Amino acid sequence: MSLTNKPRRQKKGPPAGETGQEALYLRYLSEKQVPVNVKLSGGESVAGWIEYFDDRMIRLTREGKPNLFIYKQQSRSFSEQSRRGDQAGRRPRKPGEDGTAPGAAQ
Fold first, then answer.
1. Hey, which residues does 83 pair with through a beta bridge?
2. What is the mean pLDDT of the chain?
3. Where are the domains of the chain?
4. 31, 43 Cβ separation under 8 angstroms
5. 21-80 placed in CATH 3.20.20.70
6. Entry pTM
């Protein structure tokens, strides 16, 4: 008499909704003052840098414009702004910061 005990495989469920990576990424963007574009659910896009965030909202600081408080549920995506001739996430250097005199030939 042979018993065929096949091991039952459990079906895999969907991946966890929270991985904790969102908070780490937003903290990085905030600490480094990385310029970001925030695409809103209505299709509008706003630019600035993230000054503050919590589990429901972000505060987007903009130069020369009012700061915005944006609920995360109203945003589609966050993307780092790329700058010409500069690495994303780095502020441009002021003349003389790199040790050369302002206006010096390079």
1. 86
2. 79
3. 21-80
4. no
5. no
6. 0.59
